[in-house]
Amino acid sequence: MIAILALFQLFQGLGKGDCQENWQCGNAPFSICQSKLNVYRGIGFDEESGQLIFMGKFNGSNGPVGATHIVQMPKTGGSISSKFPILSDIEQGSGYSFAYMLNAWLTKSNVAWISAAQRMAPAVGPYNPTTKTLEGIWYTRGFNLGLLFDEINSRTFVCEFDVNRYNLIPKVIEDRFIAPITMYRGQQCRFLGVVGNDLYLASMQYGEESVSTTIFKGSINCVNCTAANLVSFMVFPDEISAFHVSSTHFYFGGRRVYSPTYSGIWTVPISGDLSQLRFLVSDKIQSMVVDAAQQYVYYQTDDNVFKSASIQGNHPIVTTLYSEHSPSASGSCACAPGFTGATCSTCDGRVRWVDGNPQCVKLLANGNPETCFYDWECNNPPYTYCSGQCQCRNNFVGDRCDQCFGTIEWSYGYPSCNVPGI
Ligand SMILES: *[C@@H]1O[C@H](CO)[C@@H](O)[C@H](O)[C@H]1NC(C)=O
Ligand SMILES: *[C@@H]1O[C@H](CO)[C@@H](O)[C@H](O)[C@H]1NC(C)=O
After folding, report:
1. Whose CA is nearest to atom 10 of ligand 2?
2. Where in the chain is the domain with CATH 2.120.10.30?
3. In the structure, what pLDDT confidence band is assigned to residue 101 with cuts at 50, 70 and 90?
4. What's the distance, CA 103 to chain centroid?
5. Which DSSP state fits 122?
6. Which of 103, 165, 362, 376 is least surrounded by Cβ atoms within 10 Å, i.e. has the fewest?
7. CATH class for domain 2-323?
């Protein structure tokens, strides 16, 4: 309830309406004027509400400020509004983690899958705005992750080191280990599509000065199969950045490089007959969603313009829905992250300054901040340290992390707890 109230205050409660500059919102820098959105990669479509979903950081007067937001915009264009902020970002320190891409929007469960940059490997998973956590399900290093969610049948198809199927939509990392079904062992891919029992995989092959994309066809019922059980269905002479299969067509989004001819969105009937290949638009494509029922594609160009194109007929009607480059309309007043109240000066926690901008960080019951950037933010260093959250050093326990059921040794000013048998 408190969270809902806080959100309400954050986005509607200021009552100061339109703005151009932070100072117009009353109490800068605790109040900010959120104007143009700096867009990150990725687009989603909420079929139920007809809204396009994407993410980014709003500009204040002096550039990007505040949290990254998942935002929505009517599919016909119009104003952008925040659905929720991503409050799991740790902008600095060794435990940094910040969201940089929207992988998918799940319409039925209202869940955003995002990627967050981290020191070891980017985490990919669902973000929970209530608990303010990103649940890392996959950590992508050394392989291409391809994800296809089938919410209706509660299935997830995944390109990882193998092509796998899960008969659920993962919510926590443990779900990944509940009976994954290996479909094509040793096969990697970047995108997947499913029509009935047919599985389509898009896999890129990089040569020295060329790249091509092969579409393989298989069956979702193949268990423990190998690449030899796949049919090479079609070869597309460039890299693709987006892929969709409807019951009648393939849609490819291209952005590049070796053959600029292939920048754009293309469609080919699902028979794979390349002679019927058709160009829809010629923009460089970063991400795309297809509303096959309504015969529209929605896409994000390389330079962060969102557009729609009708699929029907010979001449697609292209409409620009949002551009990062068009002059800014007015923004709206909001509180700096975590602050509430009519003047945005209420902080139920501790104030942290980041590049001259304040954030209000909640404190946990043990007195530590909910998130941290550096060790000194944690209670009782050097028994504690910060890795995104405050932690006890290895084997230390207790509220103050200074209990050791063994012997403590000091080295360079840091304690270590040696427990016999561990
Ligand atoms: C946000 O502000 C920065 C710095 O003033 C500017 O370079 C950038 O283009 C702005 N972004 C948008 C989307 O207008
Ligand atoms: C799948 O193949 C692996 C390796 O060949 C084998 O160990 C495993 O038992 C097989 N699983 C099934 C369900 O056939």
Report:
1. 224
2. 2-323
3. very high
4. 5
5. -
6. 376
7. mainly beta
User: Which tokens in the block code for residue 290?
Assistant: 């297809």
Closest ligand 1 atom to Cα of 328: 14
Residue 8 has pLDDT above 50, yes or no: no
* Exposure letters 161-176 (e unless 16+ CB within 10 A, then b): ebbbbbeebbeeeebb
Tell me which DSSP letter residue 293 carries. T
Q: How far apart are CA 157 and CA 235, in angstroms?
A: 22
E strands of 75-110, at which residues? 81-86, 97-106
Is there an atom of ligand 1 within 6 Å of 59 CB?
Answer: yes
**Residue 420: what are its φ and ψ, rounded to 5°?**
-55, 135
* Ligand number nearest to the C-alpha of 65: 1
What's the pLDDT at 259?
65
Ligand 2 close to Cβ of residue 224 (< 6 A): yes
Q: Is the peptide bond before 29 cis (omega within 30 degrees of 0)?
A: yes
> Token pair for residue 132?
């303010």
For the entire predicted model, the pTM comes to 0.88
Q: Are strands 225-226 and 181-185 parallel, antiparallel or unpaired?
A: parallel
Q: Is 38 near ligand 1, meaning CB less than 6 Å away?
A: yes
Tokens describing residue 194: 């499913």
368 φ/ψ sector (left φ>0, alpha ψ -120 to 50, else beta): beta
Both tokens of residue 162?
Answer: 């193998």
Atom 9 of ligand 2, residue of closest alpha carbon: 224
* pLDDT of 193: 97
